[in-house]
Amino acid sequence: MTLFSPPAAPAPTTTAAFDQMLETVRYEGVYPTRRQAQDVVRRVLEALGRQLTGDERVELAARLPREAAGFLASQIPTGRPLSGWGFVKDLAQRSGGALATTRWDTGSVLGVVARIAGDDLTARIISQLPDGYALLFGRAQLLRAA
Questions:
Q1: Looking at the whole model, is its pTM more than 0.85?
Q2: pLDDT value of position 59
Q3: Which of 118, 102, 125, 110 is nearest to 45 (CA)?
Q4: How far is CA 17 from CA 41, 61, 63, 76, 137, in A?
Q5: Which helix (H) or strand (E) holds 40?
Q6: What single-letter DSSP state applies at residue 7?
Q7: Cα–Cα nearest to 129, from 67, 77, 89, 90
């Protein structure tokens, strides 16, 4: 009698990983449709792509599902750093959304992105950006020493 393990499940494809990311954002953001969640993910990651530079940008793109990484990488950093609140206001203005709704959308997406990125990368991203992003990523906002 030989004991054997069942074959391992195949690794998720990038499409499956993106679908899972969208489903998580849809559930946590309480969006009624997958399409709405995808639109929110696209807008927030494109906005983040206008702010994030350097190794953190490259490393985050490598950890995100391919489709999500494409949203991030499709934007050229502006060189005009925005505070966390400025990020939300800029995104609301570009999308035509209300500030409260845009803040909700941003937190829904960046909270999931933080889990995908992991604690170390998320901390490095937050430290690279101006004040106010920690809360958007679902982290405590610590004051920087003067």
A1: yes
A2: 97
A3: 110
A4: 14, 14, 11, 25, 20
A5: helix 34-49
A6: P
A7: 77
